[in-house]
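Pasting as-is:
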Amino acid sequence: MGHARCGTLPNTKPWRVTVGHLADGASAAVIAGATSEAAVAGFELARRDRGLSRVVFLLARTALAARDADFSTALSRISIHVPQSPGLLDLTSGFAASLQNWHSQYRILRTDLGLIGEQAATESIVRCVGDRSLTLFPSPDALQDGLRTLSTPKGFSTLAHEFFSRFTQRFLHYHLDRELSQHAGHNGRFPDRQDRRDFVRDLEIHCREAAEITRTYASDWYSKSNFSAGITERQAQTFTTACMKKLRDELAIRGQLSA
């Protein structure tokens, strides 16, 4: 089946601009905008990546499955296999296994974009359920109750925002991390570890703010899709494509405004 990376950033003008911003001490917003422009090919791949849209499909359908009295059976219908009365680790492990099996079954190339999406999705489930159950280790009932609150249009918009903010953070770090290490040290942008931690924190905040653009769209899409014929993989693909474009455009605009 193989594995495909979402590409490197060559010595192009957009990437040289990004490196220049890093060296000049530009804000996280400017660097995020410049990186998204330099990584435009990656965003375009994300819009068409079947593995990524499968992640979004499972994320939406997992929340819907929590409405069923027999949660584990409802999950099995979307090929997420868990024990009866699953815990959070059972769910996240089953989610990851389902994606791996799907790629193998349909012989679809597994990409770094899909893996970034998978990591963002499981982190989002943990975060959103944890916020609702007020614990990192919810009981099976608390897990299902927390997920059920995410199965409404408003709840799904919260889950989608969490997912796309985490996806964006991971996507930008995918391209930036190697370059960041070149700017560490006494004469660099990051004289010590705290400076780099501050930058990473600012980038996280920026990505969360940029991903707000997906919140209302996610609520409307979820409501219409679920009402019409249930959420399908094709609908998830359309939704993912639109959100990737919204994110890329928003990052570019924010970067220009902050320059």
